[in-house]
Structure formats: structure tokens, C-alpha cells
Design a protein that fits this description.
Double Stranded RNA Binding Domain, mainly alpha, 2 domains, elongated
Length: 191
């Protein structure tokens, strides 16, 4: 069963991490100088890390660091994609079919360059975004970094897949770096 570390529950992901604390520099006054509010998370199995120290409380910084870790995992770690039907329950719950009459590629959702015909619904600030991004990048990587092939497997339009990945600029940089490495042209947000 497909399970990228960015998709784990908070407790399960924290259980796989080494947690460190420290002091931060910068604004914040006396409180900041007396309290070790910086939180550093290192995901043991991958070595990928994230930290946060801009908030006054350790609990708030832990939450911010956990989200950053999820995003770093989504970009920095690839999980093998199984053959056959794909799409986690989360992906399926966020995928919408193209509006009636637009199945043939004339999507009102942006320029269409082939691939699937659906779209994915998620705000980049939502808790589910890193998990969806990780799943999309895993399928994109398994599809030779080709937007059309990946979009067919994920049942969304290529332009919608590009839009999802572009919501997190480091993910788009990774995709374009891999495409360049393979001698493919770069992508841009518009499709």
C-alpha cells in the first residue's frame, strides 16, 4: 500500500523524528532570549529536516516545523508507485471530474495539454496539501517527469497537475531540474 512519509499522521511522523530545541536570534525581546523556542525535526528514515523558531512558543514552532517537514519530505523523498490503479483515498476525495461538456480537453480550468480531465481541489495552506503534493510528485517521477503521462494516471488534467505542483515553488524547481536532466523542456505554471 502506498504511504509516503508526508502522508503520516502527526503522531506517526513525530515518532519517526529526532526533535531538537534551541534558542533563536532576532526580534522577540527578553522572552526570546530566555526560552528555547526553536524546534528542529529530523526525519530518521530519510534524514530530511525542518525547523521553526519565529513563534514565541515551542508548541507553535513545533506545528510550523512539522508542516515544513511534510513539505520537505514531499519534495525531497520519492516513494515507489504501485502498478495498476493508483490514487490514495485522500487523492480521490480531492479529485473532481471535469464539468459536463469539457471532458474532451476544453477545460475551463486553464489551458489543456492532454492527459486526464479532472482537477484537484486543495488550498496550499491546507493540512492535506503536503500529502497531495507528495503523491503527485511520486507519480510524476514514476512517469518519467512527463506531465501528460502522470496526469493520465492521476486522472487530472496536465495543466491542473502543473498548477498543483507550482503552488510550492521548490517542487516546481525539482520537476524542472529533473526534466532538464532528461533533456526535456521546462514547465511553467500556465501549463
Amino acid at each position: 500500500m502506498y504511504q509516503h512519509p508526508a502522508c503520516l499522521t502527526d503522531d506517526a511522523l513525530i515518532a519517526e523524528c529526532e526533535i531538537g530545541f534551541g534558542r533563536t536570534s532576532g526580534p522577540g525581546g527578553q522572552h526570546r532570549n530566555k526560552v528555547q523556542s526553536l524546534v528542529r525535526l529530523v526525519h530518521g528514515p530519510t534524514g530530511i529536516e525542518a525547523h521553526a523558531g519565529e513563534r514565541r512558543s515551542q508548541a507553535e514552532n513545533r506545528s510550523v516545523a512539522l508542516r515544513r517537514l511534510r513539505l520537505n519530505l514531499a519534495v525531497g523523498f520519492r516513494e515507489p508507485v504501485p502498478g495498476g490503479p493508483i490514487g490514495s483515498d485522500l487523492w480521490k476525495s480531492r479529485r473532481r471530474s471535469a464539468p459536463k461538456g469539457h471532458e474532451g480537453g476544453k477545460s475551463p480550468l486553464g489551458r489543456f495539454r492532454g492527459g486526464g480531465t479532472g482537477y484537484i481541489v486543495v488550498n496550499p495552506e491546507h493540512h492535506d496539501f503536503p500529502a497531495l503534493l507528495a503523491e503527485a510528485l511520486d507519480v510524476i517521477a514514476a512517469s518519467g517527469w512527463d506531465a501528460k503521462r502522470a496526469s493520465l494516471r492521476l486522472e487530472v488534467s496536465a495543466s491542473q497537475l502543473i498548477k498543483l505542483v507550482a503552488e510550492h515553488p521548490p517542487a516546481m524547481v525539482l520537476w524542472n531540474q529533473e526534466r532538464t536532466r532528461l533533456g526535456l523542456g521546462g514547465l511553467r505554471r500556465g501549463g
